[in-house]
Design brief:
CATH architecture: 3-Layer(aba) Sandwich
Number of helices: 9
Strand order of the largest sheet: 3-2-1-4-5-6-7
Low-confidence stretches: none
Number of strands: 7
Distance between the termini: 52 Å
CATH superfamily: NAD(P)-binding Rossmann-like Domain
Bound molecules: nicotinamide-adenine-dinucleotide
CATH class: Alpha Beta
Largest sheet: 7 strands, parallel
Shape: globular
Mean pLDDT: 97
Number of domains: 1
CATH topology: Rossmann fold
């Protein structure tokens, strides 16, 4: 196979099903010749991920729950044992108790705050450290964030706080690993109908608001996000690190709604 990712190998963490953003990224990378290993969270999701991995020519699946550091270590040990070195890592993992993805941010509990931060933010630091240790020069690492990190978005609550910390971590990691010629970036995706997305209250209303108000008058698809991820994970973006790249139909640049919405 030819393509810009020919000869490149890497790990994608966060495919749950064929609606997952990580799946859009996997398809884009595989179409350009990448060899991909996948992690999955628990056996039930493993059954869904296995046929998807096969679709992109992969039989390399590793169980990994980022709340269990031993399973993270085991996944990276297995990756190194089979491949030695890798060229890219995708972290598309997020979780918070859906009972706290509605109502007031002020009602966030201490337990869910800590759990959300560990799964949705600190896991990125933990997997980046392990990936960088086995990454070739010129390697690239990517995480997924959302504009609720920068602005108040109803119901996003503690996830917004975790995404703000995730974006800051991404910048510190970019500084840490830049001297090793390893780049670290984030894509800030607009709302996508996924399992994780459905956990946020009023997700449908948010989705249609974005469709009506984004400059492109639509939300980003997982294929759109895959294309941008391909750029950030390939040599096309060799001079780019520490960036949050928006793939949201332009929604983040808007302030007041377009006139056709405003005047109705
Ligand atoms: P998804 O439900 O398809 O993927 C979320 C993934 O996180 C799943 O594969 C799940 O198994 C994994 N995960 C959760 N807890 C985990 C744990 N303890 N250990 C290992 N894996 C765990 O949903 P998605 O929307 O594709 O989410 C991927 C990323 O994109 C998340 O970081 C999410 O916050 C981010 N994002 C989503 C949207 C959206 O609107 N859907 C927008 C911007 C950013």
């Amino acid at each position: 196979m030819t393509g810009i990712m020919h000869g490149k190998r890497g790990l994608i963490m966060g495919v749950a099903n064929n609606h997952s953003i990580a799946w859009g990224i996997a398809k884009a990378l595989a179409a350009e010749g990448a060899e991909i290993a996948f992690t999955y969270q628990g056996e039930a999701l493993g059954k869904r991920v296995k046929p998807l991995a096969a679709e992109v020519g992969s039989d390399f699946l590793l169980p990994c729950d980022v709340e269990d550091l031993a399973s993270v270590d085991a996944a990276f040990a297995a990756l190194e044992a089979r491949w030695g070195k890798i060229d890219f890592l995708v972290h598309a993992i997020g979780f918070s108790d859906k009972n706290e993805l509605k109502g007031l941010y002020a009602d966030t509990t201490r337990d869910n705050f800590v759990r959300t931060m560990i799964i949705s933010c600190f896991s990125f630091t933990e997997v980046t450290k392990r990936a960088a240790a086995i990454m070739n020069e010129g390697g690239s690492i990517l995480t997924l964030t959302y504009n609720g990190s920068q602005r108040v978005i109803p119901n996003y609550n503690v996830m917004g706080v975790a995404k703000a910390a995730l974006e800051a971590s991404m910048r510190y990691l970019a500084a840490d690993y830049g001297p090793n010629d390893i780049r670290v970036n984030a894509i800030s995706a607009g709302p996508v109908r996924t399992l994780a997305g459905a956990g946020i209250a009023d997700a449908r209303a948010m989705y249609s608001w974005n469709q009506k108000n984004a400059p492109l008058r639509r939300t980003a698809t997982i294929e759109d996000i895959g294309g941008s991820a391909l750029y950030l994970l390939s040599r096309l973006s060799n001079g780019v690190t520490g960036e949050v790249h928006y793939v949201d139909g332009g929604f983040n640049i808007t302030s007041v709604p377009p006139l056709e919405v405003l005047k109705n």
